[in-house]
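// run 5 | inverse folding | seed 20
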């Protein structure tokens, strides 16, 4: 048999166990009135699993694949990225949902992800080719970011341009 006693303005919980003739007073725990909102907030978060991790605001972007070196018509893919998410995540998501878009990258320990190939076309040192990242901003200006696919954070309605280029 258990009894609970709750007192205010502090919350005290006293549990008394009775077994036969032996009575044991168990742990007493006190919370100040200022801690109650913290405890209630924590309980609320526990009751709403996944609320903070499962829904992200999505930002629409287009990914354009250009390859004028091999006279291949540009392809445009509409996709999205999590708000303040990196381009690498958007490219992975696009590859997972669209069979016509594939890419590979390698992880450089000093400089981060390096885009190696798009749709089966890889850059190489012998031919001095690589995939260049450019961005057409919502106001129509084309820029070359000073970061790569692992750090660039697309904004809504930007056009990410992956251009097969020579250096």
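// decoded
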């Amino acid at each position: 048999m258990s009894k609970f006693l709750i007192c205010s303005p502090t919350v005290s919980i006293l549990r008394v166990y009775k077994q036969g003739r032996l009575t044991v007073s168990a742990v007493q725990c006190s919370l100040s009135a200022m801690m109650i909102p913290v405890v209630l907030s924590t309980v609320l978060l526990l009751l709403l699993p996944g609320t903070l991790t499962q829904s992200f605001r999505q930002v629409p972007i287009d990914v354009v694949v250009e390859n004028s070196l091999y006279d291949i018509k540009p392809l445009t893919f509409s996709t999205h990225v999590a708000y303040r998410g990196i381009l690498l995540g958007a490219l992975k998501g696009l590859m997972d949902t669209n069979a016509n878009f594939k890419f590979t990258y390698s992880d450089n320990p000093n400089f981060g992800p390096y885009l190696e190939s798009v749709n089966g076309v890889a850059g190489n040192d012998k031919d001095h080719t690589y995939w260049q990242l450019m961005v057409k901003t919502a106001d129509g200006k084309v820029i070359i970011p000073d970061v790569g696919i692992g750090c660039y954070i697309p904004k809504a309605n930007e056009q990410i341009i992956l251009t097969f280029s020579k250096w």
